[in-house]
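Q: I'm building a small set of examples for a reading group on sequence design. Run inverse folding on the following structure and report the sequence directly after it, with nothing in between.
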């Protein structure tokens, strides 16, 4: 679903500008979702890690505009070539997509940005150039992230990484289970996926306001300015991340994971959060324009996945799935008071069991 878009701001972007969509990275489906939404207007170019250079993903992802990068390569020649490639694409006006976090979120919260590709885009930017460079913040969120549990496993240092055969086996089992649920009529959709487009950030305006000339800076000074720009863009991305039903309900349980609640108590608490966040500018996705239905969808999704269970009319967080609950709550934790309010998964694992 397309949720919110700053249509007035987007309409003011000069058609000759180089447009770069900057977005948070929750799922490998992000590539497909954003490419689909942009397909009617343009084809996007974006960097993908070498993990995707396997059959049949390689051909599929490349067909959507991807180019593959070695994210942690220390080879100076490789870095020089990549830098020039990105700079030439930017100067030529190629529309691009950029994930400043440099990888999928592991605990559901926004990650600290990485600045390499951003540096390549802006280090030769001149305010008097023919093209402006415009960054458009994009916020994505899902009621169900396919990789949620596999990402959480990365936080368990003592767990061995699964091999490729194991990963294939898990994928086939997952697909077979959902096919069976579809055939038997017990299959439900994975909830809602939502995308918001925020206010464009014009580099001409940005450098004028800060009095910065990237081409005149030494390397250390340029890196400091790129880091400041990166933080500014991440803040803009965070402000437009959609609050989807599962994330909203997960936040209700996050406040006190061991407390059992009636459905009415859950809906009342969710409405309080909804109104508080809307008052501070958050964009809440309300399917069917029905708040009661939206909260019910979030609760149903968590129950179907055994993250929450109902016993005797009361809903309880399932102790062994508290990390999953924290993962979804963390996607909107910055609306609850900033990154410091993200739930450490280790803390979720150590939470006392529900009695």
């Amino acid at each position: 679903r397309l949720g919110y878009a700053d249509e007035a701001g987007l309409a003011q972007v000069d058609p000759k500008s180089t447009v770069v969509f900057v977005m948070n990275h929750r799922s490998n489906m992000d590539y497909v979702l954003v490419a689909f939404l942009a397909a009617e207007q343009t084809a996007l170019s974006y960097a993908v890690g070498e993990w995707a250079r396997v059959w049949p993903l390689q051909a599929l992802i490349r067909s959507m505009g991807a180019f593959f990068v070695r994210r942690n390569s220390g080879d100076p020649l490789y870095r020089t070539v990549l830098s020039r490639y990105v700079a030439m694409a930017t100067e030529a006006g190629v529309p691009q997509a950029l994930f400043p976090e440099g990888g999928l979120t592991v605990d559901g919260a926004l990650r600290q940005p990485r600045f390499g590709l951003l540096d390549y885009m802006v280090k030769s930017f001149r305010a008097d150039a023919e093209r402006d460079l415009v960054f458009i913040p994009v916020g994505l969120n899902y009621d169900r992230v396919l990789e949620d549990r596999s990402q959480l496993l990365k936080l368990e240092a003592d767990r061995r990484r699964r091999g490729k055969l194991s990963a294939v086996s898990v994928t086939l089992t997952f697909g077979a289970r959902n096919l069976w649920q579809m055939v038997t009529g017990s299959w439900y959709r994975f909830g809602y996926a939502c995308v918001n487009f925020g206010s464009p950030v014009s580099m001409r305006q940005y450098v004028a306001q800060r009095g910065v000339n990237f081409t005149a800076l030494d390397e250390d000074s340029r890196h400091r300015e790129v880091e400041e720009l990166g933080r500014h863009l991440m803040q803009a991305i965070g402000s437009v991340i959609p609050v989807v039903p599962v994330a909203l309900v997960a936040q209700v349980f996050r406040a006190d994971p061991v407390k059992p609640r009636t459905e009415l108590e859950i809906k009342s608490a969710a409405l309080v959060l909804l109104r508080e966040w809307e008052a501070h500018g958050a964009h809440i996705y309300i399917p069917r324009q029905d708040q009661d239905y939206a909260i019910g969808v979030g609760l149903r999704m968590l129950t179907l996945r055994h993250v929450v269970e109902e016993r005797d009319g009361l809903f309880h967080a399932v102790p062994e799935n508290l990390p999953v609950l924290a993962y979804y709550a963390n996607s909107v934790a910055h609306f609850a008071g900033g990154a410091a309010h993200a739930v450490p998964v280790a803390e979720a694992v150590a939470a006392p069991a529900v009695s």
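Residues 2-144+193-239 form one domain.
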